[in-house]
Design goal:
about 180 residues; mainly alpha; two-stranded antiparallel ribbon; about 70% helix; about 5% strand
Length: about 180
């Protein structure tokens, strides 16, 4: 593979991008915030857009002056979509409260009837599941593997993994509900 060498960014390009930042940063921030609904993430998106502009100054220098606003907004939108997509793929429940303290309880937003789960009881219930069901649940929800990856590890079809995962969730719900009734 041949590595592409980048030319150093010229003073003109740096000044031009600095001027664009000064002119459009507030507007682009509000566009980003409108998409992601989070000020910190919107700021990250802004930084990423202007980092890309500095990495590829020739692209931004070729855009006519009257279209630069649209070009930057398009970059912000695409970057926001990428951030949201990545965030959605990596979503997980934190085991800390809003004040920063850690707790032994976690809220389960997917199952309304299970408002609080005692993590120690959850470990006990997981140990009561058949070994294969427990392993599939752990690989899927704790380690974040995709069903296809689990199927390859366990030498079974992806459909079978999904079925076993569903069965394991039902069994776990039943075990947890039994404790709640007692």
């Amino acid at each position: 593979m041949k590595l592409r060498k980048r030319k150093p960014i010229g003073k003109y390009a740096v000044r031009y991008i600095e001027r664009l930042y000064a002119l459009y940063s507030k507007r682009l921030f509000f566009v980003a915030k409108n998409y992601v609904k989070d000020s910190d993430l919107a700021e990250d998106i802004m930084q990423t857009v202007f980092e890309k502009a500095l990495l590829y100054p020739n692209s931004i220098l070729k855009v006519p002056e009257e279209e630069i606003s649209y070009f930057l907004i398009a970059m912000v939108k695409n970057t926001a979509y990428s951030f949201l997509k990545e965030e959605k793929q990596n979503v997980h429940e934190a085991l800390t409260y809003d004040d920063g303290t850690e707790g032994d309880y976690v809220e389960d937003p997917n199952d309304n009837y299970l408002q609080l789960i005692d993590l120690h009881a959850l470990k006990e219930k997981l140990n009561k599941l058949p070994e294969q069901q427990r392993d599939i649940l752990l690989f899927r929800y704790v380690y974040g593997f995709k069903c296809k990856e689990i199927a390859d590890m366990f030498h079974m079809s992806e459909r079978n993994v999904k079925a076993k995962c569903s069965e394991a969730r039902k069994n776990l719900r039943r075990l947890l509900a039994r404790d709640k009734d007692i």
